[in-house]
Amino acid sequence: MQKAVLSAAQAGTIDIGGDLTVNRLGFGAMRITGPGIWGEPADPEEAKAVLRRAVELGTNFIDTADSYGPEVSETLIAEALFPYPADLVIATKGGLLRTGPDQWPHDARPEHLKAACEGSLRRLRLEQIPLYHLHRPDPVVPYEESVGALVELQREGKIRHIGVSNVDMRQLDLARQSASVASVENRYNVGDRASEELIDVCERDGMAFLPWAPIHASTGDEVNAVAKRHDATARQVVLAWLLARSPVMLPIPGTGSVAHFEDNVAAASLRLDPTEIEALTHT
Question: Which end of the chain is more exposed for a tag (fewer CB within 10 A), N or C?
């Protein structure tokens, strides 16, 4: 690959909810926390340096959640970036609790979601959260009740747009019966295509699709072959494939390292040819 222009703007833009325009390579702020997404990072200053570098390189969409740490990711974002650039969109999520490293119990009761949103507003130092996702359906709470809590928060002006995460088609349809859903955030990468149908619906109806774990499957003969042809890394190739998959795709790779972040951003300049895209699609 020729020396890339390091800028998330090279990926083009996407509109979220019809009124928020961001560059189409975002940053996932889960891994700026400690091991097991628990507690403070080993080097908080490096974590904040990653966030500042992200903004410097044109990343104007940051995805986080109250459960990352818990609370650590949101707090670091505010410490590093507040007062925020005018074009920065911060998305956060509620609906999960933390009881220890790698433990993610559900709690999507309306009263919990409302309290979680208030906490996120306080930590992020925002008067309104631009995009708020319901983190995961709670098996003991009717999904429409959880979504209804976000609708109430939206009416109160505490969130601007509603998103859903970790959903199937039935749950997305149910959410859209009572809410204007701006985005879907599901696991999706070269090796995990379970959300193909949801991406097609997002493209048809103008919703953004945020693939989490976007570079999880960054190995394999075809990925490595494409990377070699472009003098790129495997991580860059799978991110470039995501960007080519759909114009509504908004990848959110995350890292706690400035060097790894810069490597990821270089993917915004990588253009795969149609035969490479096809080969990776059928990997």
Answer: C
Q: Is residue 239 part of a domain?
A: no
The answer as to whether 223 is a domain residue is: no
Whole-model pTM over 0.90: yes
Domain span holding position 143: 13-216+246-270
Number of compact structural domains in the chain:
1
Task: List active site positions.
Answer: 68
Per-residue model confidence as pLDDT tens for the chain (283 residues):
445 579 999 999 999 999 999 999 999 999 999 999 999 999 999 999 999 999 999 999 999 999 999 999 999 999 999 999 999 999 999 999 999 999 999 999 999 999 999 999 999 999 999 999 999 999 999 999 999 999 999 999 999 999 999 999 999 999 999 999 999 999 999 999 999 999 999 999 999 999 999 998 677 899 999 999 999 999 999 999 999 999 999 999 999 999 999 999 999 999 999 999 999 998 8
283 domain residue, yes or no: no
Is residue 118 assigned to a domain?
yes
The CATH number given to whatever domain includes residue 38 is 3.20.20.100
